[in-house]
Design brief:
about 180 residues; mainly beta; SH3 type barrels; OB fold (Dihydrolipoamide Acetyltransferase, E2P); 3 domains; six-stranded antiparallel sheet; five-stranded antiparallel sheet; 16 strands
């Protein structure tokens, strides 16, 4: 059990049987009355951010998030196959569990998987990944302007805007935090 006095940003808490990440908190000590804590909690299940107020010293169940280094092996339909690099155990996650992270996975990529009660909570991806352009209009020779953009489809299914001078078959860097073009690989 953990008290509101021990709160830290990023902490995982179990409230009413659901997992929440503590996004922000503020201890408030009014002139009259008891102290309380204002919090912003992000639900892992839905992704929604909730604002809740709790009494000072109230107790919560803290959640143990297991962090494993896994290697992405391959995709088979809606299933993504991983291998635990310590125990060599196979892991299979569905596309819905991975969310937008699935668009940045390439074969043999090592990522950190966060697990709670053997369920995937999230993947920690590298800041940038190299992806190959599968479809786009052909690149224009000599056009090196970054301001003019066109739509492109990556090998993983990600759609994003790229400069005019890159074309199908080119490998580019993509920022995994924003999903935007970051440069040529």
């Amino acid at each position: 059990m953990i008290s509101t006095n021990q709160f830290k940003t990023g902490m995982a808490l179990v409230i009413d049987g659901e997992l929440y990440i503590l996004v922000e908190f503020q201890h408030v000590k009014p002139g009259k009355g008891a102290a309380f804590v204002r919090t912003k909690l992000r639900s892992i299940k839905t992704g929604n951010v909730l604002q809740r107020t709790y009494d000072g010293g109230e107790k919560f169940q803290d959640a143990f998030i297991e962090k494993k280094t896994v290697q992405f092996l391959y995709r088979s339909g809606e299933e993504y196959h991983f291998m635990d690099l310590k125990s060599y155990d196979p892991w299979v996650f569905r596309a819905q569990e991975l969310g937008d992270s699935a668009y940045y996975l390439t074969e043999n990529m090592e990522v950190r998987a966060d697990l709670w009660e053997a369920k995937l909570v999230g993947l920690e991806l590298p800041t940038t990944v190299n992806l190959k352009i599968a479809e786009s209009d052909p690149g224009l020779k000599g056009d090196t302007s970054k301001s003019a953009m066109k739509s492109a489809l990556m090998e993983t299914g990600l759609k994003l805007n790229v400069p005019l001078f890159v074309g199908p078959g080119d490998v580019i860097k993509v920022d995994t935090r924003t999903g935007e073009y970051a440069g040529r690989a």
